TrEMBL record:
Cellular compartment(s): Apical cell membrane; Lysosome membrane; Melanosome membrane
Native organism taxonomy: Eukaryota, Metazoa, Chordata, Craniata, Vertebrata
Any one GO BP annotation for this protein: regulation of calcium-mediated signaling
Keyword Membrane among UniProt keywords: yes
Protein name: G-protein coupled receptor 143
GO cellular component, one term: melanosome membrane
Single GO term (MF): L-DOPA receptor activity
Amino acid composition bias (Polar residues), ranges on this chain: 358-377
Amino acid sequence: MASPRLETYCCPNRDAATQLVVNFQPEVFCGVCIGSASVGLLLTILQLLPKKGQTPRKLLKASSSSTILLLISICDILGGLGIIFRSSIWLGFPGFIANISVVNGTDVWPSAFCVGSAMWIQLLYSAGFWWLFCYAVDSYLVIRRSAGLSTIVLYHMMTWGLAVLLCVEGIALLYYPSLSSCENGLEHAIPHYVTTYVPLLLVLVVNPILFRRTVSAVASLLKGRQGIYTENERRLGTEIQIRFFKIMLVFIICWSSNIINESLLFYLEMQPDINDTPLKNIRSAALITWIIMGVLNPMQGFLFTLAFYGWTGCRVDLKWRKSEIPWESLSSSTVGENAYPSPVNYQTSVHDPKKISSTDSQQTDEAISMLSEGNTSSDERLTRSSPIYQGW
């Protein structure tokens, strides 16, 4: 699981709240993390592999959104591998991890492993948060016809740049001036927690707003395409709205326990003695949410693939066929023309109002296809309702 408490645990003089949760049944907790991360990792890879009998998804043009969805899954997979590795070392070599608690110890490897593994997990999950934010931004820009594959470079710069910057800055502030004095005051810990939870809270607050505006823009485009709002178009808009809802639901399910747990632990830190009897229920709630985090955080990757693509099945096709990769889109204009012949001749029909209208409608279909990719029924209904299908 991903929590700033794991970096705090690397401090020999860690606070009492961190000591409480990290030392609570460590064998059970590490086993839960390994089991959940392993299951989530295998199911995520199974979801992404090409399947036998799967109909290749033919998109009208390459989509940055499909690339972002793949990168989110990759971040979750690599983060899950980090959780498995760290928990396996903690479970298999308890004496090695116990050396972290020795102040001024001569063996630096336990602390180096603790800091390095915690930074790896935090960096990848933070990058996943930023990519999810970029997906919401890209969805809105795509429907406004202001995005494309060229914008993916900007998303890479923003995502990895901010993820690395916030992670390094938070760790540097936490461990300043040395690892042995990183928990001498909240002025060390609070900046670290802020840099960790900023991208998470950004997704929770901003993504629903962007998704709502995108859905409204989709409805306007569908209405303006032919001047009417048919049942098929209404279903398309509803399915895109449901897809966004599933994405946010998965995110809330997987990370709300982190926010609750951190709030409880901060409250305990502010108390003179966290072992007081009146605080028993709060301690129990903190420990319960700590275990829940170990279960839900590593499962995010698999749950996201369900929200993105639905259940793709178990019949894996070991023969690699590029056209059947779930996240692949047609990148060359030649292939795109073969898949969806364009009825418009830009050189000879520039002044034809019907063909210009067909071009605009085709661009609308492309934008809707990017948002509904992975949903076969949506793609079929979109094709049947488009001017291309109707022979405009």
